[in-house]
Hints:
Number of domains: 1
Order of helices and strands: HHHHHEHEHEEHEHHHEHHE
Shape: globular
Number of strands: 7
CATH topology: Rossmann fold
Number of helices: 13
Structural class: alpha/beta
Largest sheet: 7 strands, mixed
CATH class: Alpha Beta
Mean pLDDT: 80
Amino acid sequence: MKFEFVRKIKDKFKKERASCEDAKKTIVGTKEYDINIDNLQTIKDFKSKYWQDKDNSDYYYRTVEHSFFDAVSSKYFLKYIKPSDKVLDCGAGTGRLTVKIAEIAAEVTAQDISQAMLSHISNGGGGEANIKTVCCDARNIPFADNSFDVVTSCDFICHIIDWKAYLKESLRLVKKGGYLIFSAYNGDNFAKISKNRNMKEILEKMMYGSQYVVNQTKQELLEFAQDNHADLIKIQPYNLFAGTSLWCDKLSAQEIYQLRVLIGKTYEVPKFLELIKLFEERIVKDMDSDDCMHMIVVIKKK
């Protein structure tokens, strides 16, 4: 039954993604000004429809990775959260980060465009009394200016092609001195590894169907902050082994992909996960950010 459920999801995804295949090829590896507006809208429509589907949201809830998130990446968000804070978690999905924030903050609002995703937060995925939900577009959130102390998003901005509009909306909502904290794909790392044939093939495989198309460089983030009365406080590299340029010259594309799969499985082994956690905390956090595909970005509103 489980495999039949997965097969149906994949068959549905395969049919739907055909409509945006040309758009995906246009987006990946291009600058914002190169994007054809018709293709851009196709991808937006595809993503919105995909995540609002109940079968897809159920599948995501069952399969989303928790081990590495709980042990490592969630800590980079939570260090900026205070007990008195009112927090907005954008693109909250099924509440993986929302629930963690609710353990610390006074109040957290989970925003998502999909009510199907948000339903998991109130139906067992995190029914804490200090969690609220709002179903809307992250670029047009129905709250007054300066409503929140912190705005977060985890594994979300990669889905927002017009990401600057989303970050501007987040800055509108956060108070002066408040933080935007979000995980993102590192554009400087993508630029480095896309020059290598093996890694370019892996990137295309990872992004097949246009699930992940957006990344930001350090320069783009600096310019955004400067243009919007904010400071880029930190770019924190993390999850080194899940995406790196360190071994792309030595392994084939297939070997790199197999290694990524194996590493994901090792995160389920408690003792190995503890070693990875120590490695991330003591070594990866001080590496050059462009050595990692993944980064946590912290922006502070002036």
